[in-house]
Amino acid sequence: MLNRSEEAILSWPPEWEAGLKACFPNRWPLLARSVGSGLRRLLESEADLDEARHTCIYGLLRSRPATVAQLKVAGRRLLQDAVEQVERFDLE
How far is CA 63 from the centre of its chain? Predict the structure, then answer.
């Protein structure tokens, strides 16, 4: 059984698709195919992940600080559960 947070993540791909189609009716397939490129680059760069961690622990998420390892897990999960679904929309 999925918890509320997991259910929310699974609802993102169709919402993102609708948003892409509404904002970019002619270009949405191209944009959908590359929607995860920035996140993938972030996950591949230790320096960028460290900067993201710094932003989290001294900014938005200071009450729930995350480690670099936790950020990687969250990023990979976001890719798997939502981003990869969006990237395949125009192929279906």
Answer: 22
Alpha-carbon gap, residue 39 to 51, rounded angstroms:
14
Q: Could you read off the pLDDT tens digit of each residue along the chain, which spans 92 residues?
A: 557 777 788 888 999 999 999 999 999 999 999 999 999 999 999 999 999 999 989 987 788 888 999 999 999 999 999 999 999 886 65
> How far is it, in rounded angstroms, from Cα 51 to Cα 85?
27
Nearest of 42, 44, 50, 46 to residue 66 by alpha carbon = 50
Ramachandran region, residue 68 (left: φ > 0; alpha: ψ -120 to 50; beta: rest): alpha
Lookup: tokens for 86: 């969006």
Give first-to-last CA distance, the chain, whole Å: 27
Q: Per the structure block, which two tokens stand in for 69?
A: 């390892």
